[in-house]
Design a protein that fits this description.
538 residues; alpha/beta; Nitrilase/N-carbamoyl-D-aminoacid amidohydrolase; 17 helices
Length: 538
């Protein structure tokens, strides 16, 4: 449908029709500026604002923009400019990391503020291009947009090293009944349903064949009914009371709130270590059971706790009797001429023994390693060496604890990749995420990170324990409910019980993205059938 056809089809359909025609017929910088603004506005649907209803304004307008395109390039540009605005505002906080050493990395600010959003926006452009290719008009377009957009999100989460941050489905992280859908079809599936339902009001703007706008109204109401059904099902799925807990286990989460600009100052190493040791043995609440496990955040100390006897002895002194201290610490292996460095997790017993280790597998490009380092003409990373990647998700058996699936930092953002899914692998009974979000200060980033992590608990049917240097630390039950948390930018402790896992893993934990893919295929077929040109009777 061309822009002129769109304008003609909306003639006489009221204010909404005239608005749709005005949007569809935008040209030049006005069209791309409007798409850019829509993308920025859509950020409000995501944490920490979590105003999901915003999508019912943004996505219909994007459908109208696609309807007004006359070329494939134009359809791609709609998604690109939407995505560019979306990621410029939604990921502004990444540039805060450069502020820790701005004198050294000032020249990289344009790359973080605009370069990364530019690359991510290419995926959004593919999503709107796919929507135009799948369906041309009417009821089909919102369904096609849902399929194209979700496919683009999935591709963004897997291409190269993947970056599935701020997926549309995360708009529901504060809406507990609705986010339960992730237990069935994962967060990509939640995006699929959300885009389809939120984009359907676009069909109210113009007559859609015989029956006029009644078909659009019926489709919109049907979409809302689907969302209501999901919410009712999710409300019934979540128990009224708190989740049962493991008896005899009390976790102490230590959030030291050490500023990133101070964290790697050699003159402060000892005081940071001492602070976390002191917090580990502070008295708990009156009458509360004493901690059995103490957990510190990612890179809690700069010392190699697995191979440094003095560091292990100092840690062991604050371990509960018969318990553990679990902490993030760098590790180094191999001879001097073939040395490898790891961003690791170490569990230390009260006897100063190493009970288990885990090495981060999904490393941050340009943060923990530099792709094609030898080919780049500049030092684009704070570290002079690359970290090595661990073997991937696996289950740790630690004394006094149920089997645990450890994750370090942003490893937790990858759906379906937080537990060992190899045949015969032991399923963990809880997830542990150690992180250091101090790089991003008081910004939206840590809020988004915590919300994203909480959805892994819903998908896997496992409780999540998250310990962050500056926050947000917390305990999340397998329904995604936050049992306890510490605010961003505050020093403090959480002494809490460990919730039980669900008796049986939910469908997503068993089948991964397959149910989402099947649902997407059904919607794509429906969009193609509804949107293909109809032959006029002779």
């Amino acid at each position: 449908m061309t822009a002129d056809m769109m304008a003609e089809s909306t003639a006489g359909t009221g204010r909404l029709g005239r608005l749709a025609a005005s949007v569809a017929t935008l040209r030049g910088w006005r069209r791309w500026g409007f798409a850019f603004t829509l993308g920025m506005f859509a950020v409000a649907a995501l944490p920490p604002v979590s105003a999901a209803p915003v999508l019912w304004l943004v996505l219909p307008a994007m459908v109208w923009l696609i309807d007004g395109t006359t070329t494939k390039r134009g359809a791609f540009a709609v998604g690109f400019w939407f995505g560019f605005g979306h990621f410029v505002l939604g990921l502004y906080w990444i540039s805060f990391a450069l502020g820790v050493d701005i004198g050294r990395f000032f020249y990289m600010l344009p790359l973080t503020v605009f370069g990364l959003p530019f690359l991510l926006a290419l995926f959004s452009g593919l999503g709107t291009l796919a929507a135009r290719l799948i369906a041309w008009r009417g009821l089909a377009r919102p369904l096609a947009l849902a399929v194209g957009w979700t496919a683009a999100e999935w591709l963004r989460g897997h291409a190269l090293t993947g970056f599935p941050w701020n997926l549309i489905g995360y708009a529901w992280t504060d809406w507990t009944p609705v986010i339960q859908l992730a237990s069935l079809i994962g967060i990509y599936g939640v995006s699929l349903v959300t885009v389809a339902v939120a984009a359907l009001p676009a069909t109210l703007a113009a007559p859609l064949g015989k029956g006029g706008t009644r078909r659009g109204a019926a489709a919109t109401l049907a979409g809302l009914a689907v969302l209501a059904a999901v919410a009712v099902w999710g409300w019934q799925r979540v128990p009224d009371g708190p989740m049962p807990v493991h008896e005899g286990i009390t976790l102490r989460l230590v959030q030291p709130n050490i500023d990133q600009s101070d964290k790697w100052d050699p003159e402060l190493f000892h005081s940071h270590f001492a602070l976390q040791r002191e917090m580990s043995v502070e008295p708990g609440a009156a009458g509360a059971p004493p901690p059995t496990v103490v957990i510190w955040p990612e890179t809690a100390i700069p010392y190699r706790a697995d191979s440094d006897p003095a560091a292990r002895q100092a840690i062991a002194q604050v371990a509960p009797v018969g318990g553990l201290v679990i902490l993030g610490a760098p590790r180094r292996t191999g001879p001097d001429d073939a040395r490898q460095y790891w961003n690791g997790l170490v569990a230390v017993t009260a006897a100063a023994e190493v009970a288990g280790t885990y090495d981060k597998a999904h490393l941050v490009p340009f943060g923990e390693y530099v792709p094609l380092r030898d080919w780049l003409p500049f030092d684009a990373v704070a570290s002079r060496v690359d970290y090595s990647a661990g073997p991937g998700p696996h289950t740790l058996d630690l004394p006094g604890l149920p089997p645990v699936g450890p994750m370090i930092c942003y490893e937790i953002i990858f759906p379906g990749a937080v537990t060992d899914r190899q045949p015969g692998a032991e399923r963990p009974q809880w997830l542990l995420n150690l992180t250091n979000d101090a790089w991003y200060g008081i910004s939206a980033g840590p809020h988004q990170h915590f919300a994203i992590a909480s959805v892994r608990a819903v998908e896997e049917g496992l409780p999540l324990v998250r310990v962050a240097n500056t926050g947000i630390s917390g305990i999340v039950d397998p329904y995604g409910r936050v049992v306890a948390s510490l605010p961003l930018g505050e020093r403090g402790l959480i002494d809490g019980a460990l919730p039980l896992a669900l008796d049986a893993p939910p469908p997503y934990a068993r089948y991964g993205d397959l149910p989402m893919a099947l649902l997407g295929a059904i919607l794509a077929l429906a969009a193609w059938l509804l949107g293909r040109p109809r032959r006029r009777p002779a």
